[in-house]
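G.,

No rush on this.
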Amino acid sequence: MRFTLQLNPKTNSPTYEVLDQSGNSIELINRFLHALELRGLSRHTVRSYGFDLVVLYRWLETTSKTLEELKQADLLSYIAHQKEKNDKPRSINRRLSTCEIFYEFCYDKHIPGGAGAIYPAPHYRGPGRDRRLGLFRLPKPSRLRLRVKVPRTLVEPLEVKEVKAFLKDVSRYRDLGIILLMLCCGLRSSEVVSIQLEDIQLEQRRLKVRGKGNRERMLPLPEFLINIFNKYSIFERPSHSRTPNYFTVLQGKRRGYPMSLAGLRSLFRYRRLASLVSRANPHLWRHSFACDLARVGVQLPVIQKLMGHSDPHITLQYIHLSMRDIAEEYNRAMARISKNYEHPCIPHS
């Protein structure tokens, strides 16, 4: 049986629902998604939960099991099923979390263990105190949740020559504004396409951004971006456009309609082919933004606020300086340190 996630056409608000191949509603899932909406979770978050549950139900069909019959040992088969499709560890872990939360929502209990279940081994990290809040003893979880080990990968930010090559032949003010919003303001793709006319406050030189979880933040706008936005508004943005969204489609039958995420991805796909900068995906520009700020000495709390992160540990995941940055800092430090030691083999500048 095939399960699909779609917007419910019977409601005025963007409500998601999951249907089977006959078009029948999956009541348990849709009650869960509705509960998430009532909690105030963003549309993108609710959609992600819906897709995770579609994957879960498709797998349950292959095992001839029901959700209520699930055991912890079955989750190992669920992991193996996803690994066969080359799904990423982070995606697998997110789906495991969704499965556990959904099971607890439906049956008011944890997924039972039983023979064949396996849990992550605990690691001793001291008496359990929160270093950021002070010496407060933290309660230990009753049990660790099943997770896949996530390899630590380094994301190399874009180099200056790659950015110049990517921007070289960009002729539209709209496209240039979108790319520079990611490079110089660190916006996500979804944040760019959701910008509305009222969000751009040119006189105050600032921009209101709606981030994950509908959290809003204000960002300063550099002068060159203000000039680009002015030219886009005067020369390119269709005057007959009725959408409040700032970035619109500029040609074709959908001229004047709001730009979609698919349209933004298409823009970057075309630019990658034209510039031969094959790794310049939209999110990598956000990594480059964080690294550029770190290079010039901007403090971590400031970078965190600019990027809209609720936790500084998330921000640190974006600041992976290139090997060139590390080598330059190391060589500068060693030039000073080596002066403290006298030896014929140690050169002094």
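When you get to it, here's the other one too:
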Amino acid sequence: MKIPSPGESITEVEIASWLVEDGDYVERDQAIAEIDSDKATLELPAEESGTITLKAQEGDTIQVGAVVCIIDTSAKAPANSTKKEAKAAAPETPKKEEATPSTPAKSEVASPSIDVKASPVAKEIITQNALNAGKISGSGANGRITKSDVLQFMSGGITTSAAGGWGGTRETRREKMSMLRRKVAERLVGVKNDTAMLTTFNEVDMKPVMDLRAQYKDKFRETHDVNLGFMSFFTKAVTEALNIVPAVNAHIDGKEMVFHDYADIGIAVSSPKGLMVPVLRNAEQMSLAEIEAEIKRLAIKARDGKIALEDMEGGTFTITNGGVFGSMLSTPIINPPQSAILGMHNIVERPVAVNGKVEIRPVMFVALSYDHRIIDGKESVTFLKNVKEMLENPVKMVFGGKSAEEVLLGL
């Protein structure tokens, strides 16, 4: 088998992990490896059924078209079960042991590994929580550590390894950066060096959108079989604002500016492989329900590692939501070759002036990073102001950024 081309301009890939072992019998179209390109992680399916001989190691960089493995198609499938099935069944054995409650036999095995003076119960607690017994002061006879000593030690704010705390060692570890991560790093540095990036900020009173969601979210889910989130409102507001300020939806190509008569919106989503930016094609034509359904579909594909290159190619504008991680304010980096990116943040109740009175409102700070070579300050501020106004008066999204009264009066 040779490495197939994952997409245009990709000349090499990296073996992220083998999903089979040397000598295994594989079925046709069975996923045998995960390969990293500089754009995405993809599964490599077997072209034929047979016994596989691996010709590359995990972490190796392989040229597109080079041989990565050999499949002996004359080999017969095992009579009983394939090694793959055996491997799938293997985890069941330890599960049975884990399912059984702790017994005295377990503590007897674990206790001798702790070479300190401690009661059997104290030793069991120390082992289960991976505590450093040397740091626990014993109050028993001859400094013997008791159960109460261990519990007091744990209640003193000491986190344990079992709870995800520090291990108390001076060890370090190295992990090789994936090809995708290396490419992302290269592109981000390139953006900082090759663009005149600037960021403008504004704040949005989210009460109108939140009230609308609270009123219709149940009916929306029943009607469209998808939840009503904030991202659809922001995407719709962005597409309308891009129509008003087309320069934000354009990009530079050599000595020319390329304008788009459509809005392909990239939505940054977190995945096990890092940040992915799948694209909503012609988002300007979508309803809120269609936006939510497409975001859900792409986010699931990214989470499951099944996102395809064509799902992430292109894009004229990007939205990233740091608020889901608690970010209050940030300056997002442009996703090249685009010229702008909108950063959403967390919603915090803040005192604001409303009609001359101070009220507590749910407020979100928003940030627009843009390439000043193609987008002027007036355009960037106008764009962000329109996004703010449409979110604070959602009816404007229906009428291209105008209020119902303005449409009625022909303004």
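Confidence is low (pLDDT under 50) at residues 81-113. The first helix runs from residue 83 to 89.

Enjoy the weekend,
O.
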